[in-house]
Design a protein that fits this description.
Helix content: 25-40%
CATH class of the largest domain: Alpha Beta
Number of helices: 13
Distance between the termini: 91 Å
Number of strands: 24
Structural class: alpha/beta
Number of domains: 3
CATH superfamily of the largest domain: FAD/NAD(P)-binding domain
Largest sheet: 7 strands, mixed
Amino acid sequence: MPQQFDLVIIGLGSGGTIAAEFAAGELGLNVAAVERARIGGDCLWTGCVPSKALIASARVAHTVRTAAEFGIRTPEPDIDLGAVWERIKQIQAGIATTDDSPERFRELGVELVEGDARVTGYREVTVDTADGPRILTTRYILVCTGSRPAIPSIPGLDTVPYLTSESLFEIDRPPRSLVMIGGGPIATEMAQSMVRLGVPTTVIEMAHRLVPRDEPELADRLGRILRDEGVDIHLATSATAVAPGGDGVVVETDEGDFTAEGLVVATGRHANVDGLGLDAFGIPIGPDGAEVDGRNRTLVSSIYVVGDAAAGRPNFTHSAAHDAALAVRDMFFPGTGSPVHLVPWCTFTDPELAHVGLTAAQARERHGDGAVTVHRHELTDNDRARVDGATDGLIVVVTVKDRIVGAHALAPGAGELIHELGMAIQFGAKLKDLTDMIHVYPTLASGIGRLAGDRSMGTAKRYRSLTKITRWLG
Protein backbone atom coordinates (compact mmCIF):
# COMPACT_ATOMS: atom_id res chain seq x y z
CA MET A 1 0.00 0.00 0.00
CA PRO A 2 1.57 3.35 -1.01
CA GLN A 3 2.36 5.71 1.86
CA GLN A 4 1.14 9.32 1.59
CA PHE A 5 3.47 12.24 2.29
CA ASP A 6 3.32 16.01 1.90
CA LEU A 7 6.80 16.05 0.38
CA VAL A 8 9.25 13.48 -0.93
CA ILE A 9 12.82 14.70 -1.31
CA ILE A 10 15.17 12.80 -3.62
CA GLY A 11 18.76 13.34 -2.49
CA LEU A 12 20.06 14.46 0.90
CA GLY A 13 22.93 16.70 -0.10
CA SER A 14 23.17 20.43 0.56
CA GLY A 15 19.74 21.19 -0.89
CA GLY A 16 17.93 18.11 0.39
CA THR A 17 19.08 18.44 4.00
CA ILE A 18 17.97 22.08 4.19
CA ALA A 19 14.63 21.24 2.56
CA ALA A 20 14.03 18.34 4.97
CA GLU A 21 14.92 20.43 8.02
CA PHE A 22 12.69 23.31 6.90
CA ALA A 23 9.71 21.22 5.77
CA ALA A 24 9.63 18.79 8.70
CA GLY A 25 11.26 20.76 11.49
CA GLU A 26 9.80 24.22 10.84
CA LEU A 27 6.57 23.59 8.92
CA GLY A 28 5.66 20.28 10.54
CA LEU A 29 5.02 18.55 7.22
CA ASN A 30 5.03 14.81 6.64
CA VAL A 31 8.32 14.35 4.81
CA ALA A 32 10.18 11.39 3.32
CA ALA A 33 13.75 11.73 2.08
CA VAL A 34 15.41 9.24 -0.24
CA GLU A 35 19.20 8.85 -0.29
CA ARG A 36 21.13 6.12 -2.08
CA ALA A 37 24.52 6.83 -0.49
CA ARG A 38 25.54 9.02 2.46
CA ILE A 39 23.69 11.99 3.92
CA GLY A 40 25.56 15.21 3.20
CA GLY A 41 26.15 14.69 -0.50
CA ASP A 42 29.00 16.19 -2.48
CA CYS A 43 29.62 19.08 -0.09
CA LEU A 44 30.42 16.91 2.91
CA TRP A 45 32.08 13.92 1.29
CA THR A 46 33.78 15.09 -1.91
CA GLY A 47 33.44 18.88 -2.18
CA CYS A 48 33.43 21.86 0.14
CA VAL A 49 34.36 20.18 3.43
CA PRO A 50 37.32 18.01 2.31
CA SER A 51 38.69 20.61 -0.11
CA LYS A 52 38.60 23.40 2.47
CA ALA A 53 40.20 21.11 5.06
CA LEU A 54 42.95 20.40 2.52
CA ILE A 55 43.35 24.13 1.87
CA ALA A 56 43.68 24.77 5.63
CA SER A 57 46.53 22.28 5.97
CA ALA A 58 48.25 23.69 2.90
CA ARG A 59 47.95 27.23 4.27
CA VAL A 60 49.66 26.18 7.50
CA ALA A 61 52.53 24.63 5.52
CA HIS A 62 52.87 27.81 3.47
CA THR A 63 52.83 29.98 6.60
CA VAL A 64 55.61 27.92 8.17
CA ARG A 65 57.62 27.99 4.93
CA THR A 66 57.35 31.79 4.61
CA ALA A 67 57.61 32.67 8.32
CA ALA A 68 61.00 34.33 7.81
CA GLU A 69 59.20 37.16 6.01
CA PHE A 70 57.68 38.02 9.42
CA GLY A 71 60.95 37.77 11.33
CA ILE A 72 60.40 34.20 12.50
CA ARG A 73 62.93 31.58 11.43
CA THR A 74 61.62 28.04 11.08
CA PRO A 75 62.85 24.89 9.35
CA GLU A 76 61.14 23.60 6.22
CA PRO A 77 57.80 22.05 7.29
CA ASP A 78 57.76 18.28 7.70
CA ILE A 79 54.55 17.34 5.88
CA ASP A 80 52.81 14.03 6.58
CA LEU A 81 50.35 13.67 3.71
CA GLY A 82 48.76 10.62 5.28
CA ALA A 83 48.02 12.66 8.42
CA VAL A 84 46.60 15.49 6.31
CA TRP A 85 44.18 13.07 4.63
CA GLU A 86 43.32 11.50 8.00
CA ARG A 87 42.45 14.94 9.38
CA ILE A 88 40.13 15.50 6.43
CA LYS A 89 38.31 12.24 7.17
CA GLN A 90 38.00 13.10 10.86
CA ILE A 91 36.39 16.44 10.04
CA GLN A 92 33.94 14.73 7.69
CA ALA A 93 33.09 12.13 10.32
CA GLY A 94 32.49 14.83 12.92
CA ILE A 95 29.99 16.63 10.70
CA ALA A 96 28.36 13.34 9.66
CA THR A 97 27.68 12.41 13.29
CA THR A 98 26.23 15.82 14.21
CA ASP A 99 24.67 18.12 11.61
CA ASP A 100 24.18 15.40 8.97
CA SER A 101 23.42 12.40 11.15
CA PRO A 102 20.39 10.22 10.28
CA GLU A 103 19.22 10.42 13.91
CA ARG A 104 18.94 14.19 13.70
CA PHE A 105 16.60 14.02 10.72
CA ARG A 106 14.54 11.23 12.23
CA GLU A 107 14.11 13.36 15.36
CA LEU A 108 12.76 16.11 13.11
CA GLY A 109 10.15 13.66 11.84
CA VAL A 110 11.75 12.89 8.46
CA GLU A 111 11.30 9.33 7.24
CA LEU A 112 14.59 8.26 5.69
CA VAL A 113 14.42 5.78 2.83
CA GLU A 114 17.62 4.21 1.51
CA GLY A 115 17.76 3.23 -2.14
CA ASP A 116 17.54 4.43 -5.74
CA ALA A 117 14.54 6.64 -6.49
CA ARG A 118 12.54 7.03 -9.67
CA VAL A 119 9.67 9.40 -10.35
CA THR A 120 6.89 7.07 -11.45
CA GLY A 121 3.96 9.46 -11.30
CA TYR A 122 3.13 13.15 -11.05
CA ARG A 123 2.89 12.59 -7.30
CA GLU A 124 4.63 9.24 -6.91
CA VAL A 125 8.18 8.08 -6.23
CA THR A 126 9.29 4.45 -6.37
CA VAL A 127 12.38 3.52 -4.38
CA ASP A 128 14.38 0.36 -5.07
CA THR A 129 15.33 -0.59 -1.52
CA ALA A 130 17.21 -3.63 -0.22
CA ASP A 131 13.81 -5.12 0.66
CA GLY A 132 12.32 -4.48 -2.76
CA PRO A 133 10.45 -1.61 -4.40
CA ARG A 134 8.63 0.86 -2.15
CA ILE A 135 6.07 3.34 -3.46
CA LEU A 136 5.76 6.79 -1.87
CA THR A 137 2.81 8.98 -2.83
CA THR A 138 3.10 12.67 -2.13
CA ARG A 139 1.72 16.12 -2.79
CA TYR A 140 5.09 17.38 -4.03
CA ILE A 141 8.43 15.98 -5.19
CA LEU A 142 11.72 17.84 -4.74
CA VAL A 143 14.74 16.59 -6.71
CA CYS A 144 18.09 17.47 -5.08
CA THR A 145 20.34 14.87 -6.69
CA GLY A 146 23.38 17.09 -7.30
CA SER A 147 26.04 16.38 -9.91
CA ARG A 148 29.07 14.23 -10.67
CA PRO A 149 32.43 14.92 -12.35
CA ALA A 150 32.20 15.29 -16.12
CA ILE A 151 34.72 12.99 -17.79
CA PRO A 152 36.00 14.22 -21.17
CA SER A 153 36.45 11.94 -24.18
CA ILE A 154 40.23 11.80 -24.25
CA PRO A 155 41.76 8.78 -25.99
CA GLY A 156 43.40 6.44 -23.50
CA LEU A 157 41.85 7.99 -20.41
CA ASP A 158 40.21 4.68 -19.58
CA THR A 159 43.61 2.97 -19.53
CA VAL A 160 44.90 4.80 -16.43
CA PRO A 161 43.54 4.96 -12.86
CA TYR A 162 42.75 8.69 -12.91
CA LEU A 163 41.35 10.65 -9.95
CA THR A 164 38.56 13.21 -9.80
CA SER A 165 37.68 15.84 -7.21
CA GLU A 166 35.60 13.09 -5.58
CA SER A 167 37.95 10.10 -5.57
CA LEU A 168 40.91 12.25 -4.53
CA PHE A 169 39.46 12.39 -1.03
CA GLU A 170 38.61 8.71 -0.85
CA ILE A 171 42.25 7.56 -0.94
CA ASP A 172 44.61 7.52 2.04
CA ARG A 173 47.19 9.93 0.59
CA PRO A 174 47.72 11.67 -2.75
CA PRO A 175 50.21 10.61 -5.45
CA ARG A 176 53.73 12.05 -5.19
CA SER A 177 53.20 14.20 -8.31
CA LEU A 178 50.13 15.22 -10.30
CA VAL A 179 48.91 16.38 -13.67
CA MET A 180 45.50 18.09 -13.58
CA ILE A 181 43.32 18.41 -16.65
CA GLY A 182 41.18 21.50 -16.12
CA GLY A 183 41.75 24.95 -14.67
CA GLY A 184 38.46 25.90 -13.07
CA PRO A 185 37.91 26.70 -9.38
CA ILE A 186 38.24 23.09 -8.16
CA ALA A 187 41.48 22.41 -10.04
CA THR A 188 42.93 25.80 -9.10
CA GLU A 189 42.28 25.31 -5.39
CA MET A 190 43.68 21.79 -5.40
CA ALA A 191 46.75 22.66 -7.47
CA GLN A 192 47.87 25.40 -5.10
CA SER A 193 47.23 23.22 -2.06
CA MET A 194 49.14 20.28 -3.52
CA VAL A 195 52.19 22.36 -4.35
CA ARG A 196 52.15 23.91 -0.87
CA LEU A 197 52.08 20.38 0.55
CA GLY A 198 55.11 19.37 -1.51
CA VAL A 199 53.35 17.60 -4.40
CA PRO A 200 54.63 18.91 -7.78
CA THR A 201 51.56 19.73 -9.88
CA THR A 202 50.98 20.61 -13.53
CA VAL A 203 47.70 22.20 -14.67
CA ILE A 204 46.49 21.89 -18.27
CA GLU A 205 43.67 24.27 -19.23
CA MET A 206 42.05 24.79 -22.64
CA ALA A 207 41.05 28.41 -21.95
CA HIS A 208 43.47 31.33 -22.05
CA ARG A 209 43.26 31.84 -18.28
CA LEU A 210 42.38 29.99 -15.10
CA VAL A 211 38.86 30.38 -13.64
CA PRO A 212 37.60 31.94 -16.90
CA ARG A 213 34.22 32.97 -15.45
CA ASP A 214 35.86 35.51 -13.16
CA GLU A 215 37.02 39.07 -13.86
CA PRO A 216 39.94 38.55 -16.31
CA GLU A 217 42.37 40.94 -14.60
CA LEU A 218 41.98 39.20 -11.26
CA ALA A 219 42.05 35.71 -12.79
CA ASP A 220 45.30 36.53 -14.60
CA ARG A 221 46.84 37.88 -11.40
CA LEU A 222 45.79 34.73 -9.52
CA GLY A 223 47.48 32.64 -12.21
CA ARG A 224 50.70 34.58 -11.74
CA ILE A 225 50.55 34.09 -7.95
CA LEU A 226 50.14 30.34 -8.37
CA ARG A 227 53.02 30.20 -10.85
CA ASP A 228 55.21 32.10 -8.39
CA GLU A 229 54.40 29.43 -5.78
CA GLY A 230 55.47 26.67 -8.15
CA VAL A 231 52.30 25.50 -9.92
CA ASP A 232 53.21 24.54 -13.51
CA ILE A 233 50.35 26.10 -15.52
CA HIS A 234 49.80 25.57 -19.26
CA LEU A 235 46.96 27.66 -20.71
CA ALA A 236 45.34 27.41 -24.14
CA THR A 237 46.49 23.78 -24.07
CA SER A 238 44.41 20.69 -24.85
CA ALA A 239 44.99 17.13 -23.67
CA THR A 240 44.95 14.93 -26.77
CA ALA A 241 45.73 11.51 -25.28
CA VAL A 242 46.53 9.74 -22.03
CA ALA A 243 48.63 6.61 -21.52
CA PRO A 244 50.48 4.71 -18.78
CA GLY A 245 54.16 5.55 -18.63
CA GLY A 246 56.84 7.66 -17.01
CA ASP A 247 56.25 7.95 -13.26
CA GLY A 248 52.74 6.58 -13.72
CA VAL A 249 50.81 8.45 -16.41
CA VAL A 250 51.66 10.46 -19.51
CA VAL A 251 49.34 13.19 -20.74
CA GLU A 252 49.91 14.14 -24.37
CA THR A 253 48.96 17.71 -25.32
CA ASP A 254 49.36 20.06 -28.27
CA GLU A 255 52.19 21.67 -26.26
CA GLY A 256 54.09 18.49 -25.43
CA ASP A 257 53.91 15.54 -23.04
CA PHE A 258 53.56 15.78 -19.25
CA THR A 259 54.16 12.92 -16.85
CA ALA A 260 53.37 12.40 -13.17
CA GLU A 261 52.52 9.65 -10.74
CA GLY A 262 48.85 10.58 -10.72
CA LEU A 263 46.24 12.27 -12.92
CA VAL A 264 43.30 14.38 -11.73
CA VAL A 265 40.45 15.14 -14.14
CA ALA A 266 38.64 18.36 -13.17
CA THR A 267 36.72 19.39 -16.28
CA GLY A 268 33.34 20.39 -14.91
CA ARG A 269 30.32 18.46 -13.70
CA HIS A 270 27.20 16.74 -15.08
CA ALA A 271 23.83 16.85 -13.37
CA ASN A 272 22.51 13.63 -11.79
CA VAL A 273 19.12 13.64 -13.50
CA ASP A 274 19.38 10.71 -15.89
CA GLY A 275 17.66 7.58 -14.61
CA LEU A 276 15.16 9.50 -12.46
CA GLY A 277 12.36 9.10 -14.98
CA LEU A 278 11.73 12.82 -15.39
CA ASP A 279 11.86 12.63 -19.18
CA ALA A 280 8.91 10.22 -19.14
CA PHE A 281 6.75 13.17 -18.06
CA GLY A 282 8.01 15.50 -20.77
CA ILE A 283 10.50 17.32 -18.53
CA PRO A 284 13.52 18.34 -20.64
CA ILE A 285 16.81 17.10 -19.16
CA GLY A 286 20.43 17.30 -20.23
CA PRO A 287 24.00 17.37 -18.89
CA ASP A 288 23.26 20.69 -17.16
CA GLY A 289 20.13 19.34 -15.45
CA ALA A 290 16.37 19.50 -15.70
CA GLU A 291 14.71 22.62 -17.04
CA VAL A 292 12.92 24.67 -14.38
CA ASP A 293 11.07 27.97 -14.31
CA GLY A 294 11.73 31.01 -12.13
CA ARG A 295 10.21 29.18 -9.15
CA ASN A 296 12.31 26.00 -9.55
CA ARG A 297 9.28 24.11 -10.96
CA THR A 298 9.49 21.74 -13.89
CA LEU A 299 6.77 21.43 -16.54
CA VAL A 300 4.98 19.25 -13.98
CA SER A 301 3.81 21.68 -11.29
CA SER A 302 4.15 19.10 -8.49
CA ILE A 303 7.84 18.39 -9.32
CA TYR A 304 10.58 20.85 -8.35
CA VAL A 305 14.32 20.57 -9.05
CA VAL A 306 17.07 22.58 -7.32
CA GLY A 307 20.84 22.81 -7.01
CA ASP A 308 23.18 21.20 -9.52
CA ALA A 309 20.29 19.10 -10.84
CA ALA A 310 18.52 22.23 -12.15
CA ALA A 311 19.62 23.66 -15.50
CA GLY A 312 20.59 27.31 -15.44
CA ARG A 313 21.11 27.57 -11.70
CA PRO A 314 24.58 28.18 -10.19
CA ASN A 315 26.37 25.02 -9.09
CA PHE A 316 27.20 26.09 -5.55
CA THR A 317 26.34 24.63 -2.17
CA HIS A 318 24.95 27.92 -0.89
CA SER A 319 22.78 28.38 -3.97
CA ALA A 320 21.39 24.83 -3.70
CA ALA A 321 20.50 25.28 -0.03
CA HIS A 322 18.88 28.65 -0.68
CA ASP A 323 16.82 27.40 -3.63
CA ALA A 324 15.73 24.27 -1.73
CA ALA A 325 14.22 26.34 1.09
CA LEU A 326 12.54 28.63 -1.44
CA ALA A 327 11.11 25.65 -3.33
CA VAL A 328 9.49 24.32 -0.16
CA ARG A 329 8.04 27.77 0.53
CA ASP A 330 6.65 27.97 -2.99
CA MET A 331 5.03 24.54 -2.74
CA PHE A 332 3.04 25.28 0.38
CA PHE A 333 2.86 29.09 0.17
CA PRO A 334 2.64 29.64 -3.62
CA GLY A 335 4.31 32.70 -5.08
CA THR A 336 6.73 33.25 -2.18
CA GLY A 337 9.64 31.19 -3.44
CA SER A 338 11.22 32.94 -6.43
CA PRO A 339 14.98 32.24 -6.43
CA VAL A 340 17.50 35.05 -6.09
CA HIS A 341 19.52 35.36 -9.28
CA LEU A 342 22.36 37.35 -7.72
CA VAL A 343 24.60 34.60 -6.36
CA PRO A 344 28.10 35.36 -5.03
CA TRP A 345 30.85 32.80 -5.33
CA CYS A 346 34.41 32.34 -4.19
CA THR A 347 37.41 30.32 -5.30
CA PHE A 348 39.23 29.46 -2.07
CA THR A 349 42.78 29.87 -3.24
CA ASP A 350 45.17 32.04 -1.23
CA PRO A 351 44.37 34.85 -1.81
CA GLU A 352 40.71 34.06 -2.37
CA LEU A 353 38.97 35.17 -5.56
CA ALA A 354 35.37 36.29 -4.97
CA HIS A 355 32.76 37.44 -7.47
CA VAL A 356 29.23 38.85 -7.41
CA GLY A 357 27.24 40.39 -10.23
CA LEU A 358 28.60 41.40 -13.63
CA THR A 359 32.16 41.49 -14.89
CA ALA A 360 33.25 44.71 -16.57
CA ALA A 361 32.86 43.09 -20.01
CA GLN A 362 29.36 41.86 -19.20
CA ALA A 363 28.35 45.30 -17.94
CA ARG A 364 29.63 47.02 -21.10
CA GLU A 365 27.85 44.49 -23.33
CA ARG A 366 24.59 45.03 -21.45
CA HIS A 367 24.72 48.79 -20.82
CA GLY A 368 27.22 50.24 -23.32
CA ASP A 369 30.78 51.47 -22.82
CA GLY A 370 29.86 55.02 -21.90
CA ALA A 371 27.69 54.07 -18.93
CA VAL A 372 30.22 51.75 -17.26
CA THR A 373 32.98 52.76 -14.87
CA VAL A 374 35.43 50.34 -13.26
CA HIS A 375 36.78 51.34 -9.84
CA ARG A 376 39.91 49.68 -8.43
CA HIS A 377 41.61 49.47 -5.05
CA GLU A 378 45.03 47.83 -4.97
CA LEU A 379 45.91 46.04 -1.75
CA THR A 380 49.30 47.73 -1.89
CA ASP A 381 47.34 50.81 -0.71
CA ASN A 382 45.59 48.92 2.10
CA ASP A 383 47.19 49.17 5.55
CA ARG A 384 45.79 45.83 6.77
CA ALA A 385 47.19 44.08 3.73
CA ARG A 386 50.55 45.73 4.36
CA VAL A 387 50.84 44.59 7.97
CA ASP A 388 49.65 41.08 7.04
CA GLY A 389 52.13 40.84 4.17
CA ALA A 390 49.33 40.21 1.67
CA THR A 391 49.50 43.12 -0.74
CA ASP A 392 49.25 41.14 -3.98
CA GLY A 393 45.53 41.63 -4.52
CA LEU A 394 42.84 43.92 -5.81
CA ILE A 395 39.22 44.98 -5.22
CA VAL A 396 37.23 45.90 -8.34
CA VAL A 397 33.77 47.47 -8.37
CA VAL A 398 31.83 47.85 -11.63
CA THR A 399 29.21 50.62 -11.80
CA VAL A 400 26.63 51.73 -14.34
CA LYS A 401 25.92 55.44 -13.87
CA ASP A 402 27.32 55.06 -10.34
CA ARG A 403 24.98 52.15 -9.48
CA ILE A 404 26.94 49.05 -8.44
CA VAL A 405 26.34 46.09 -10.77
CA GLY A 406 29.40 43.92 -10.16
CA ALA A 407 32.15 43.40 -7.61
CA HIS A 408 35.27 41.26 -7.57
CA ALA A 409 38.02 40.78 -5.02
CA LEU A 410 41.35 38.99 -5.01
CA ALA A 411 42.30 39.17 -1.35
CA PRO A 412 42.64 37.13 1.85
CA GLY A 413 39.11 36.49 3.06
CA ALA A 414 37.58 37.81 -0.17
CA GLY A 415 34.67 35.40 0.30
CA GLU A 416 33.82 37.27 3.51
CA LEU A 417 34.09 40.85 2.27
CA ILE A 418 32.17 40.25 -1.00
CA HIS A 419 28.84 40.10 0.86
CA GLU A 420 28.77 43.84 1.56
CA LEU A 421 29.08 44.53 -2.15
CA GLY A 422 26.54 41.83 -2.98
CA MET A 423 24.02 43.50 -0.69
CA ALA A 424 24.74 46.83 -2.35
CA ILE A 425 23.92 45.30 -5.74
CA GLN A 426 20.84 43.52 -4.38
CA PHE A 427 19.35 46.76 -3.08
CA GLY A 428 20.38 48.97 -5.97
CA ALA A 429 22.92 51.04 -4.04
CA LYS A 430 25.19 53.57 -5.67
CA LEU A 431 28.89 53.69 -5.00
CA LYS A 432 28.51 57.01 -3.21
CA ASP A 433 26.16 55.30 -0.71
CA LEU A 434 29.11 53.27 0.60
CA THR A 435 30.88 56.45 1.69
CA ASP A 436 28.19 56.89 4.36
CA MET A 437 29.20 53.60 5.99
CA ILE A 438 32.14 53.72 8.38
CA HIS A 439 34.47 50.76 7.90
CA VAL A 440 36.60 49.40 10.74
CA TYR A 441 40.30 50.29 10.46
CA PRO A 442 42.52 48.48 9.71
CA THR A 443 40.61 45.91 7.67
CA LEU A 444 40.69 44.74 4.09
CA ALA A 445 37.04 45.79 3.84
CA SER A 446 38.10 49.37 4.55
CA GLY A 447 39.39 49.25 0.99
CA ILE A 448 35.77 49.26 -0.16
CA GLY A 449 35.18 52.46 1.79
CA ARG A 450 38.42 53.89 0.40
CA LEU A 451 37.37 53.01 -3.15
CA ALA A 452 33.98 54.70 -2.66
CA GLY A 453 35.64 57.66 -0.99
CA ASP A 454 38.03 58.13 -3.90
CA ARG A 455 35.03 58.35 -6.19
CA SER A 456 33.38 61.01 -3.99
CA MET A 457 36.62 63.00 -3.75
CA GLY A 458 36.85 62.96 -7.53
CA THR A 459 33.34 64.40 -7.71
CA ALA A 460 34.22 67.06 -5.13
CA LYS A 461 37.20 68.22 -7.21
CA ARG A 462 34.88 68.87 -10.15
CA TYR A 463 32.90 71.27 -7.98
CA ARG A 464 35.95 73.08 -6.56
CA SER A 465 35.76 75.88 -9.10
CA LEU A 466 32.06 76.32 -8.37
CA THR A 467 32.75 76.81 -4.65
CA LYS A 468 35.37 79.45 -5.47
CA ILE A 469 32.87 81.35 -7.65
CA THR A 470 30.23 81.14 -4.92
CA ARG A 471 32.71 82.46 -2.35
CA TRP A 472 33.67 85.36 -4.67
CA LEU A 473 30.04 86.25 -5.35
CA GLY A 474 29.33 86.16 -1.66
